[in-house]
Structure formats: structure tokens, C-alpha cells
Design goal:
alpha/beta, L-arginine/glycine Amidinotransferase, Chain A, three-stranded mixed beta sheet, 14 helices, binds N~2~-(3-carboxypropanoyl)-L-arginine
Amino acid sequence: MAIATEANIDGLVGPTHNYAGLSYGNVASQVHALTISNPRQAALQGLRKMKFLADLGIPQLVMPPHPRPDFTTLKRLGFETFADAPAELLHQLYSASAMWVANAATVSPSADTADGKVHFTPANLISKFHRAIEPEVTAQYLKHIFKGGHFVHHDPLPAHSAFADEGAANHMRLSSAHGERGTEIFVYGGASQKYPARQSRQASEAIIRLHGLEGARAILLEQSAEAIDAGVFHNDVIAMSNGPLLITHEKAYRNIDERTSGFTSVVIRNKDLPLKDAVSTYFFNSQLITLPNGLMVVIAPSECEGNAAAKACFDRLIAEGHVAKVHYMDVRESMKNGGGPACLRLRVVLTEAEREAVHKEAWLNDTLYQALCRWIEKHYRDKLTADDLRDGALAEESQRALAELSSLLKIPVGHHS
Ligand code: SUG
């Protein structure tokens, strides 16, 4: 077994972060539609979370925001300027939703794949138009950050509902240690009634083939319709995993596969944490991480601290010895759009040699952290309303900010063919 560590790559929240109510089935996005956002606060909250993990000794990478507004898509639709575009399109092309990089791609570590390389498949995100415009730029960023012979970059799956793919938000991995061959769990949506399922079984099956995970290395699980209809639009709103530990809600799946039984499986009962509270607190959207000293800790949304049921469930996980500590973190600006701590990050398990190959300017160290804080303070507004999206100055501010970030991270931002 090669020694490997798990790095997180987090999406830096972009300067146009706003609440447009674009995600039907995502309760928080619906509830906060057209309320006032604070992009500066949003970006700083996300960045502080990254710094907190880096300070715990967890390797941390930064993924730049996508260029917004998205002029490329505007032009593809035959519009010359945003002044001509209908309000709905304006909201979609200004969305900072690429910040939730748990939806950027599915990643399989080299310990699991048939060819011993790290595999990436960018998610096509076809279920929501404002997210379907992300894969092209996501693919460019991933190829730039993870460059060279250790990494295999697949194309996003065909853009059709039969292959609807939302990336790592519907993917988990169990292994005795990060560098050991793991069992990858792919979760897809079944026949829900109220809200749409966002991951198709055929998409998960295609990724299993592409990443060379056939046979014992992959498991498929079907989400329960009850969970989807309660607002569980992604698996990472109802389950979490790390190393040998799998924590799921009793109502997460139609059936749980026996092949998870070799690992430690904790089931949270509905009577202890009703689905409604799981969704409102984002209990399961916590980051479960292994510290360099081997202890497992949780980075949980601060909403859990104020909810008696969620807090009691964490206290139980500590009392039973599954985790050593829970750190509550404020990512409220992201939470209001349905994105908790785990939504903001993509996990990438890397061996030492693979780590060496990663684009070095993307690693978060103290210098980059300070530079990004200054960059945010300089360019971001602290208040954004739906009406502000019509303000041409915002588009210019956003472009200026990203141009400067591009030289800070040495990653070209924008569409490049
Ligand atoms: O796709 N929200 C995102 C939240 C994604 C959360 N990710 C994970 N669970 N991994 C979504 O629904 C809302 C945008 C708006 O309404 O303005 C939004 O896109």
C-alpha cells in the first residue's frame, strides 16, 4: 500500500454570490429566494473553513470561481448584452453555484482504480440550467491543477437526463486507510414524487466503468423517495463517510448493500434526528476527516449546534468513540443556498508522488490565505440583491477580480478552447 493523504479542494465563493431560488427540491435555495446576500462574507466564511482545515494539518487546495456573469453562454443563446436577457436567465448566468465543488466531479483515488491512476469525471449537472453551464470551466480548472501522468481526466457524461450526474455529492468511499484499496459507493435517485432526483443510475454505472472500479470496488445504492421529497437532493445531505466509518440516516436508502458491513456503520434513527432536522441543520453535510495523528474529527455547520437533536447525535458519536471532536463552523451564506461545509469541498486522496504533481500555487498556505483575504476585501460587495444583477458595474467588478485572482493562483480563469 502507498501512503496517501486526503486533500480537499474547496471552491472559492465568487463575487456574484446571490440567492435566486434556482434549485427546486433544495429547500434552503427556495426559502431564501431573492433575499439579500453578502458575497464578501460568503467568500471569507469559505476561506476561513479552508484555513481551519489547513491548520489542522489537512492539505488544502483552492479552486477559483467561474467567470460570472457567463458571457459565453449568453452569446451562445443569441444575446449581445445582459440588458436584453430575461430576469430568469440573468439569475442563472450570474449564479456563483460553482462554489459547491462537491458537485464539480467524481474522483477515484489511484488505490481503487484498475490502472492505478487518479480518475476525474466532471459532473454534467444537467438537472439545473444554472449548473449545467459549469462543466466546461470545471474541467479546465481540474486539468490545470491536476496535471501529468498520474491523473486521468474524462469528459463529462453526455448531457441528457439519462446520464444526470452531480459528482462527488453522490459518492462515498470506505477504506481501512486512505491509501488502501477502497469500496466506492455510488448513490442515485429513484422514483421520487414531489422533487426530482438529480443523479441517475446509468450515470453512476458509467463512472464505475470509466474509473475502472468494476467488480468488488463499487457499490450502487438507491436513495429513498421519502428522503428526496423531504429535500435530500444530494446524498451528502443524508450520509457521510471517512476511512472505515459510514454514518447514514435510517431513511437514506431503499436498501443498504451488505458489502458495507465490513466497515463501521452507524445509523442515525429518524426518532433521534427527523429528516426535517437533518435537512434544516445539514448534520450530514459535515466533513469527517482524519487528522495526521489518526484521530477522526468533524467539521459541522454551526446550525447543528443550535438544534438539540443534531447536537445530541454528535454528542453520541463522541461518547461512542466514533469521532474525537466536533468543530462547528459558520458557513451561513452558503447554507442559505443549500450548501454546507461538505458541499464546498471535493476530496482528493493523493500519494506523495501525486501530491508533488499538483499545481503548487493552488495549495493554501498562510501567504495565500492572507493574499486571498485582501483580494476579497478589495473586490467583493457586502450586499447583493436581485436588482443589482442588472448593474453593469457588477459584471466589470467581477471580471477585474477574477483577472487578479488568475495571476495570484497562476490559473487562467475563463473559457478557453
Ligand atoms: O445545486 N444550490 C446548489 C447547492 C449545492 C449543494 N451541494 C451539495 N449538496 N453537495 C444546488 O442546488 C442554489 C442557487 C440559487 O438558488 O441561487 C444552488 O444552486
